[in-house]
Every structure is written in C-alpha cells, then in structure tokens.
Amino acid sequence: MSLEVFEKLESKVQQAIDTITLLQMEIEELKEKNNTLAQEVQSAQHSREELERENGQLKEQQQGWQDRLQALLGRMEESNASRPLPFGRGQHFPVLYTRKL
C-alpha cells in the first residue's frame, strides 16, 4: 500500500512540476508581449510628440500668412480709400455684353 501511495504522490508532484513549467513559459511569453507593447507605446508617444511639434509649426505658419494677408488687405483698403472710384460710390461698373458669333 505504501508503494501505491508513493506512486500517487509522485504523479501529483510531476503534475505540479508540469503545471509550474507551463506557467513559467506563459509568464515569459507575457513578459515578451509586455516589452513589445511598451516599445509600441513609446514609439506612439514619440510620434505624437513629433506631430504636436509639426502642428505647432504649421499653426505658426498659418498665423504668419494670415497676418501678411491682413496687412496686404489693409494696404489695399488704404489705397482704395485714397483714390476716388471711377463711377462714384455705390455705382457698379458697366457690364459689357458681347455677342457670340
């Protein structure tokens, strides 16, 4: 009877060892996946920072162009205000009709 109990105990110990080995392998796989995901997160953060920098630069460029355009429009208005309109204020330019042949 003690041999039978010993064999059962040995079987259970072997099952426990197998389970521990499988769990250790699973832990290693999960660590690798975790490292991969951490690298992907770091890469995504780096890309986001680059995009935010580029977005800031583009916004500055856009503001510069808007400022230039406003300055040009202001100069055009000043120029037009100092010259009388050829047809008077409120009047429209004559429309020329052409006949198609």
TrEMBL record:
Sorted UniProt keywords: Cell cycle, Cell division, Coiled coil, Cytoplasm, Septation
Record SUPFAM superfamilies: t-snare proteins
Localization (cell): Cytoplasm
Annotated Gene3D superfamilies: 1.20.5.340
UniProt-listed GO biological process terms: division septum assembly; FtsZ-dependent cytokinesis; vesicle-mediated transport
Disordered: region residues: 38-63
One cellular component term from this protein's GO annotations in UniProt: cytoplasm
Top-rank lineage group of the source organism: Bacteria
Sequence ranges of Basic and acidic residues compositional bias: 46-57
Quaternary assembly: Homodimer. The ends of the coiled-coil dimer bind to each other, forming polymers. Interacts with FtsZ.
Family statement drawn from the similarity comment of this UniProt entry: Belongs to the ZapB family.
Record's function text: Non-essential, abundant cell division factor that is required for proper Z-ring formation. It is recruited early to the divisome by direct interaction with FtsZ, stimulating Z-ring assembly and thereby promoting cell division earlier in the cell cycle. Its recruitment to the Z-ring requires functional FtsA or ZipA.
Official protein name in the record: Cell division protein ZapB
